Amino acid sequence: MRRQWINRCKNAGFEENEAAAEVDFAIEIICGLSKEDLLKGKTICGADKEKIDKIIAERLKTRRPLAQILGCAFFGGKKFKVNEHTLIPRPETELLVQKSLELIKKYNYKQVLDIGTGSGCIACMIALDSDAQVLGVDISTGALRCALDNAMGMGLMNRALFRKSNLFSNIQEKFDLIVSNPPYIPLSEKENLQIEVRDFDPATALFTEDEKGIEFYEKIIKIAPSHLNNGGSIAFELGIGQFDDVSRLFNANGFIDIEIYKDLSGIERVITAKYP
Ligand code: GLN
Description:
With about 280 residues, the chain is an alpha/beta fold. About 45% of the residues lie in helices and about 20% in strands. Strand 10 (about 255-260) and strand 11 form a beta hairpin. The longest helix is centred in the first third of the chain and has 17 residues, at about 45-60.
């Protein structure tokens, strides 16, 4: 069955490894079986076969991402709920979590703000792997509901909190660390995106009005000093080629110790800076 599903995806234009990853993800979520389980001889029951058939048909017909069809995605090895109001967590974002956790440990940070929390994947992973308390904010009520579900599901009720806020609009407190994976794709690039992203990820999570995609970095960096405790930091995920502009913004607004980290594809993906 697995092979047949993979071939169906390949006939629809998927590469072998993409097709296999998608099929394995569906099997794992629907039947709780890994590829290894199948190799060891475990079988998929008839009802599940039918479910997966339908899921793959929908995936190929509509191009809706599998994570949205299944309602979940893996991030940092944990299963997160997602919905049509949340960006599907990307593997690159795990680097942002990792660098944030390093800062939290190095400076003993306790209060963290996650701006544009979406599914809450960043907020939850930070709360899970540190002693810090995380406040996740988002402009979207649908996203906040999803983030709250994820935090509850992971037993993080008191450690990851969520609130509706447009950037800092509803925030009075100060924090040790502000983390964000904000929208960073210029709207003018919309037509170049793959259909799965262009038509299904929420536009408010993807696009900026400005040509460089740095609108949200600029807004956050300018206001952040009044919401950071002494010696606090900011950590951002970046889009391709945004490092120069964002470090200039940090410099111009009095930040120091600017560090940049590359992802597995060699792209400058995460930037961190400290407010003295
Ligand atoms: N912070 C969320 C994530 O990384 C959402 C990001 C976004 O919507 N731009 O998945």
